[in-house]
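PROTEIN DESIGN WORKSHEET
SECTION A - STRUCTURE
LENGTH: 580
TOKENS:
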């Protein structure tokens, strides 16, 4: 957790200089550890003040200690800013302090200054965090709230002669609106965006029966949702069956538009969809998306609906060009175009939820597919597609229950880019329980590769090679290349468990040896351009660091994947030297 504690300073904490991180963390664990066992697993991130850090703080911020609209402070390599709309305490103090609001203009300028110093805005050390000072006591005047825009109350004892204007636009929400717009700009928020949180849609109904469902959607953009902007939940007109009008407007009363201007960022909105099921039996897909200001935006929610008898599980029959994943629920096929010819990929299942495809040479793996059961989290199955190729490829993943088909096309001469979708595939069992996240222990992070993968492929050495294979290092190309890596999960950096699939290809996993995360391939291109070729791909959006070392020349090829980013396939056919 992050602890931002202004009162951890004299005179309230007399032994501040003696307190250590371990002291504070230990007391927090003692007080809250039983009820929140996972809260302190990653330790404590301490945000101190510039007046009293404490010395071991991870970052520090100016709090209630200056009279500036915008100020910044750097501690421990982290630069943070403080924003203030104004300050005026002369009704209760003499002489007191005065930082005029001037109708809100200086506060707008402060946010401009912050944007200029944010990541991507310039400056040697960008500002990563911004804190908004809002001490909500009227007589100290820093509050970010809705207020009367008339003349300020000036006490008889206030002889300063100062005066002020709340809003030059006569806007009671002047500082709320400026804060919302400035924060969206600083974070780079989309103007309009949406996230589906929940629904209670039935999966099967009788023909002609009443149909009622509720859908909960969160506003994840910066624009407020209201009737004036035409914000609504749309069912796509391309559906073969549309419930009612297909348009479900935001209710101004429900979202309190009169008070807040509409449903603001972070607020969930509940839509009720009512109609009648079609008379024709069959399987239908109902697609919903938010709309407003003349455009559709955000995620698409796809709900399967069976009218009449529920469908039986469609068959998935594995063969040389078809693999079945997730208990045969998903069928995976694909083709590749090589030298002008379109040929089917040969498909091989590695685990119950992961497999690969090859062509021409079963030692040269081209693409990887993973399907995970996310039903307990968002009532969806999740699909991940990755590759170690720059050939033209088309992949199809078919849900044999709903008939949905997810297609991925990779253009020719283009590195295959990882694609993931956690909202497309429906068909979760109706009785699937909610997920309960267990605690991840150090033992989980350090599990050795299981016997299932042990000895999957033998490894030999070429003269001069110095690669020793173990649980976290894999040797490729006759031991010439050593592959290792790490992943950051829940704040912990842990080594990937590395497994060889073929003499030139391997993969890495962590936590669960059935859930494969990254793949590495090294090919001998010496006969073509006097180089070895390296391909790196993944089926993950975690923070990953991979290293491929030429143990003869000492060259190291490094690939870093940022957190919350689909792993971008990378290939290099000119870096590695050392051909015989």
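SECTION B - SEQUENCE
RESIDUE ASSIGNMENT:
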């Amino acid at each position: 957790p992050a602890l931002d504690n202004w009162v951890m300073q004299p005179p309230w904490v007399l032994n501040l200089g003696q307190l250590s991180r371990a002291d504070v963390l230990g007391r927090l664990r003692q007080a809250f550890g039983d009820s929140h066992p996972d809260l302190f697993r990653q330790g404590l991130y301490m945000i101190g003040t510039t007046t009293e850090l404490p010395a071991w703080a991870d970052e520090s911020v100016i709090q209630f200690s200056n009279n500036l609209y915008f100020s910044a402070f750097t501690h421990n390599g982290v630069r943070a800013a403080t924003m203030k709309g104004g300050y005026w305490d002369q009704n209760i103090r003499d002489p007191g302090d005065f930082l005029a609001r001037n109708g809100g203009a200086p506060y707008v300028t402060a946010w401009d200054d912050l944007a200029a110093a944010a990541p991507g805005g310039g400056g040697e050390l960008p500002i990563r965090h911004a804190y908004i000072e809002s001490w909500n006591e009227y007589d100290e005047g820093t509050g970010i709230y809705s207020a009367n825009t008339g003349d300020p109350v000036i006490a008889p004892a206030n002889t300063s002669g100062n005066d002020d204007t709340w809003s030059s636009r006569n806007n009671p929400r002047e500082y709320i609106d400026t804060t919302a717009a400035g924060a969206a700009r600083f974070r780079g928020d989309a103007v309009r965006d949406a996230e589906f949180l929940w629904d209670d849609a039935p999966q099967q109904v009788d023909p002609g029966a009443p149909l009622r469902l509720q859908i909960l959607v969160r506003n994840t953009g910066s624009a407020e949702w209201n009737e004036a902007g035409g914000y609504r939940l749309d069912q796509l007109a391309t559906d073969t069956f549309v419930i009612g009008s297909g348009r479900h407007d935001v209710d101004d009363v429900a979202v309190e538009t009169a008070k807040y201007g509409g449903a603001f960022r972070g607020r969930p909105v509940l839509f009720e969809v009512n109609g009648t099921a079609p008379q024709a039996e069959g399987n239908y897909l109902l697609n919903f998306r938010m709309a407003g200001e003349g455009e559709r935006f955000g995620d698409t929610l796809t709900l399967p609906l069976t009218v009449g008898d529920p469908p039986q599980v469609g068959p998935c029959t594995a063969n040389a060009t078809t693999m079945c994943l997730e208990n045969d629920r998903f069928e995976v096929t694909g083709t590749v175009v090589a030298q002008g010819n379109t040929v089917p990929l040969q498909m091989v299942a590695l685990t119950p939820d992961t497999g690969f495809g090859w062509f021409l040479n079963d030692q040269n793996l081209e693409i990887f597919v993973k399907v995970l059961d996310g039903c307990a989290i968002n009532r969806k199955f999740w699909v991940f597609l990755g590759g170690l190729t720059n050939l033209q490829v088309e992949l199809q993943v078919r849900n044999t229950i709903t008939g949905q088909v997810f297609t991925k096309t990779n253009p020719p001469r283009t590195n295959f880019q990882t694609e993931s979708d956690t909202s497309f595939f429906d068909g979760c069992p109706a009785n699937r329980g909610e997920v309960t996240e267990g605690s991840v222990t150090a033992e989980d992070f350090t599990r050795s590769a299981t016997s299932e993968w042990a000895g999957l492929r033998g490894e030999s050495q070429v003269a001069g090679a110095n690669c020793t294979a173990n649980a976290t290092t894999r040797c490729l190309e006759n031991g010439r290349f050593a592959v290792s890596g790490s992943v950051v999960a829940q704040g912990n950096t842990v080594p990937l468990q590395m497994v060889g699939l073929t003499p030139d290809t391997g993969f890495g996993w962590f936590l669960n040896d059935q859930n494969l995360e990254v793949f590495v391939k090294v090919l001998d291109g010496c006969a073509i351009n006097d180089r070895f070729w390296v391909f790196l791909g993944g089926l993950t959006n975690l923070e990953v660091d991979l290293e491929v070392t030429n143990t003869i020349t000492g060259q190291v090829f490094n690939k870093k994947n940022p957190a919350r980013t689909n792993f971008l396939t990378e290939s290099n056919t000119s870096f590695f030297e050392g051909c015989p």
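SECTION C - NOTES
Residues 174-187 form the longest helix (14 residues).
The two ends are 54 Å apart (CA to CA).
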